[in-house]
Design goal:
four-stranded antiparallel sheet; globular; six-stranded parallel sheet; 491 residues; 45% helix; alpha/beta
Length: 491
């Protein structure tokens, strides 16, 4: 079999650049192929290429490494193109949060729902579609894998307005670790387990589905026994701990991981309440709490335990800067490249089974490895429903467990989406569909309709004010066609 060519657009990505290098050169299936790194920042690109060369030399890997600031120079005959770029993402997320909060909208992440998610889509979709036009010309058989938030909106845009093979992914439901976490929590697997044995898989029925970042555990049985009540018991314990830790913090104590930042803060409390109300459990509460209006602070009674905390762009910027500084240290030799190879880079656990580590982040390389090698693995992928959820439209763009090979993802059957959450899913899908359409057509009327449909926008005057202020303050990041008229045509 020929060797794969994988192009990473946005090689300096905080989440994907280093894991892609690690995976390409440690996978027996991928290491003989070509890794093409693309980044518009020459300094970042040079750093990532140097890191790749150091890893290659350390491992004696046969991987071909190429790179360019011009994607067209390296796209030809690609087999996979991974989109992981962002235009000054942390800065603009902070600006989105600032503008929205001024008009009564609170966002703890600001990259997928609310005005932050909508305007991030407006910033990123024109670039994503431009990339797909190059892929159509230079690598027409490639799979384009979107790893850029808002993952669903960009995934929809690629499916609706591009002539390439594509699907979208997210780091939140990385297999097998997402489901393994549920099994460990209810005592069905030991805490140091790193895989789900076939005998356990045969008895397990764990269904997680929904719009990306708004996914829910709709069924959790083992040997026919319902384990959601046990999951709920653990939530109650964690929620109690969160309240106690926050009280201690108020007395001058140290912040815990559970209460240290906006995406982690009071997650068990929010999850427990939503589970009690809807009878199913949110699987990605760090984002889901931002998708519902209940924790915005609307209404008369105070929100318990508190409205969602605002995304801290300065904190994230420090994290990203530290990550890049560490990368430069690996390149310079200040940190041994052997340490980089021993450091868990997300997908490594599947090949280093004796390393019980907490996994988060990339699984694009795991998916590529399985597709190219015909391994028959199942992953959570964002794609069209196609009947997997029986009471939702076939073209609903959902995150589901899918069998995937070189023909693309095939969703596994999931039954019905329960009432209550079903209606919320449709509202989020409508918001995302309108956002994708507005981003592709530069239509301000559609954009306002997307804001009016969004679940956490509750005032049209505020929606218009957010829209106009964001257009003014993000002029250098938004396509000029937004300022030239309404609905000038698909890009």
């Amino acid at each position: 079999m020929s060797q794969p060519k994988v192009v990473v657009v946005g090689a300096g990505s905080y989440f994907f650049g280093r894991p892609a290098i690690w995976a390409m050169m440690t996978s027996e299936i991928l290491r003989g192929g070509t890794l093409a790194l693309v980044d518009t920042n020459p300094e970042v690109l040079a750093t990532m290429l140097a890191l790749a060369e150091r890893v290659k030399a350390e491992l004696g890997a046969p991987t071909t490494i190429i790179g360019s600031t011009d994607r067209r120079e390296v796209l030809r005959d690609a087999d996979f193109v991974v989109l992981t770029f962002s235009d000054r993402g942390v800065y603009f997320r902070g600006l989105d949060v600032e503008i929205a909060a001024k008009h009564g909208v609170r966002m703890c992440s600001a990259d997928t729902i609310g005005s932050g998610g909508i305007f991030r889509a407006l910033r990123e979709i024109p670039t994503a579609l431009a990339i797909t036009r190059d892929v159509e010309e230079l690598a027409p058989y490639a799979w384009v894998i979107n790893f850029v938030n808002p993952s669903t909106v960009i995934g929809m845009a690629l499916a609706r307005y591009a002539n390439v093979r594509s699907f979208a992914i997210c780091d939140g439901l990385h297999e097998p670790f997402a489901r393994l976490n549920f099994l460990k929590t209810v005592g069905l697997m030991p805490q140091d387990a790193i895989a789900i044995p076939p005998a356990v898989e045969a008895r397990l029925d764990l269904r997680i589905v929904g719009v990306n970042h708004f996914t829910w555990v709709t069924k959790f049985t083992y040997n026919g026994e319902d384990y959601l009540p046990r999951w709920r018991e653990k939530l109650a314990e964690w929620a109690s701990d969160e309240v106690a830790q926050n009280a201690q913090l108020g007395k001058g104590g140290n912040a815990s991981d559970n209460n240290a930042n906006s995406k982690a803060r009071f997650n068990a409390c929010y999850t427990k309440e939503l589970t009690d109300i809807f009878g199913i459990a949110p699987a990605c509460i760090a984002h889901t709490k931002e998708y519902v209006p209940y924790y915005q602070g609307f209404g008369v009674a105070p929100v318990s335990p508190e409205p969602v905390a605002l995304f801290d762009a300065e904190q994230r910027a420090r994290e990203v800067a530290a990550h890049h500084a560490e990368t430069r240290a690996y390149v310079s030799g200040e940190k041994p490249i052997a340490d980089f190879l021993k450091k868990p880079h997300w997908s490594c656990i599947s090949r280093y089974p004796d390393t019980p580590v907490k996994i988060k982040g990339d699984h694009a390389t795991d998916i590529i490895e399985s597709m190219w090698g015909g391994l028959g693995r199942v992953f959570f992928i964002n794609t069209f429903n196609r009947g997997a959820v029986s009471n939702m439209p076939a073209d609903a763009f959902l995150e589901m467990r899918c069998y995937v090979d070189l023909h693309g993802p095939v969703p596994l059957p999931l039954g019905e989406m329960p009432r209550g959450v079903l209606g919320l899913q449709h509202q989020v899908l409508d918001t995302h569909e309108l956002t994708a359409q507005a981003a592709a057509t530069f239509d301000r009327d559609l954009l306002l309709r997307a804001l009016a449909t969004d679940p956490i926008i509750n005032n049209l005057t505020d929606a218009r004010a957010i829209m106009e202020e964001t257009f003014e303050r993000q002029r250098d990041a938004l396509d000029a066609r937004w300022y030239a008229g309404v609905g000038v045509g698909v890009v």
